Amino acid sequence: MSGQPPEDAAEAAARPRGRPRMVIDLDAVADAVAGLVIDGGDKAISIVGAAERLDVSRATLYRLVPTKEDLVGIMFERATRQQTEVMDEVIRSATTVRDKLIRLIEMQVEAAVRMRGYMPVFFGGEGLPADVFERWHVWSREYEATWHACVEEAMAEGVLEPADVVTTTRLLLGMCLWVSRWFRPEDGIETEHIARVAVSLILPGNA
Amino acid sequence: MSGQPPEDAAEAAARPRGRPRMVIDLDAVADAVAGLVIDGGDKAISIVGAAERLDVSRATLYRLVPTKEDLVGIMFERATRQQTEVMDEVIRSATTVRDKLIRLIEMQVEAAVRMRGYMPVFFGGEGLPADVFERWHVWSREYEATWHACVEEAMAEGVLEPADVVTTTRLLLGMCLWVSRWFRPEDGIETEHIARVAVSLILPGNA
């Protein structure tokens, strides 16, 4: 990624020497990489595999994404950007802290289910380029800090039992993130249902 | 392990052709394997490495534990046996379901912290011999069923908000198991403290 946001890199690489504008969408690239990981683990990440899924030539994809590390970086950017956007929206919304907490839990369960196939790549850190892993750590800390602020407010307002905020935040995040380990579409348990049960577990009388 | 419990295999292998009784304790072997995994990941599991940690010759260890798969099997047996023993004790104890639930949470957090280094070997399944992985699955299902029964009783008695028992059980287990991902001794957050916060989160007024 060499410092530039991938959108700019894509723009720049898109029209070398008068070629037609390249129309590969970075979100589509992120989906393709995620698909490779879901089907074959992090070892399955490759330009060739991603090009096949995107139905473009390898040469075309190489111009946009020169290395495997860049592919992982694009998946990372998309995963974290989506999550940050949803979280910012929740935090800025004009609602009670109780509702914000419920929305954060819903969002977190939904993200765990959506990203269940490639979360191990981030959490395990193996096969992850060092710069992406570092950015993941920075992002995780900021992300946890936002959760932390909401939990703290919930305790101050009596929505949650007063307790150590850091530990409470991590327990709540863990409860939601572990869903990525046991969720199976074939079980027929809906994401919304899981989130509702999680909310009723920590906020009795809310279901 | 070829079907025999490791204790019997150890006993049988211990005195070939009039040799003195072998005194390697299987719990010590389990600790040695766990230590290898904690320090170097599952790739670090080897007879040579375990022999070094146990301060016995490779030949001695080979007689007791012929393959790397047997080493992993011994670690697995120990981890699950300990946990089953503690859980059975909790379930059989003459106490309220509220107290049983609290004890299960404490036990689960404690286990997550103790086994944090090698839990990824079981949960990831990579590098795990097929028969050990299968036994792990069978064991996990039985283990979850015991938790499930306690959660169901807690809901029947109004200790927990009535909700889908399977989902509630998995959320509770996840909250505890994810501690293995974030626990760092250097943070100075005690295991007992984490368990207490977890209890106060789902059973307000209990702390």
TrEMBL record, chains A, B:
Keywords: DNA-binding, Transcription, Transcription regulation. One of its GO terms (molecular function) is DNA-binding transcription factor activity. Gene3D superfamilies: Homeodomain-like (1.10.10.60), Tetracycline Repressor, domain 2 (1.10.357.10). The keyword DNA repair does not apply. Residues 46-65 bind DNA. Coiled coil: none annotated. Residues 23-83 form the HTH tetR-type domain. SUPFAM superfamilies: Homeodomain-like, Tetracyclin repressor-like, C-terminal domain. This is HTH tetR-type domain-containing protein. It comes from Mycolicibacterium pulveris (Mycobacterium pulveris).
